[in-house]
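chain below, 149 aa
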Amino acid sequence: MKHERCDAVGAIVKNSKGHYLVLYRLQQPQGLGCPAGHVEEDETRVEAVTRELFEETGIRAKKTACVYRGVFGTARLRCKRGVSKHKWSIYRVLTYVGKARRKEKREHAFVKFMSPKKIREYANRNDLTPLWVEVFRQLKIINGRTNHT
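prediction:
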C-alpha cells in the first residue's frame, strides 16, 4: 500500500530518578530516540503507542497522555513504508509495568533509562534523531541550542 503520510506515535517514559527511556536505533533514522512506530490501520494511537513500547522495550503502558502533536519529516529520511512525512502523536507514559530491555536486537544497540544531561550530550554530537531533538526541546527535556540548530 502506497502512503503519502503516515500516522506515527512515540512514547516518553520517565522513571522515579528523572531519567528517560531511550533506545539507540541502528537503522534509519539512526541515533538516540524513544520508542516509536507507525499506527496500524485497525488501531487507535493509544493502542499503537502501547504496542510499540512493549514490542521495543518490554514495558507495558498503563496510563498515557498525549503531550505533542505535529507533522515532522524530511525528504532525505524515509521510513520503511517509503514515506518522508509523518503525523506524530507523542505520549507521556504516566504509569507502566515491566523492566526495560532490548527486544529487537537487529534494530537497537541498547534500551535504557538516561539522564537529560546525557541525552543532551547525544544531541550535541548530532546523534539524537531529529524528531526527538524537536520533541525534547518542546517539552523542555533538553534546553538551548544543540548542533542540530
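The chain has a mean pLDDT of 88. Residues 12 and 92 are 5 Å apart (CA to CA).
thats it, cya
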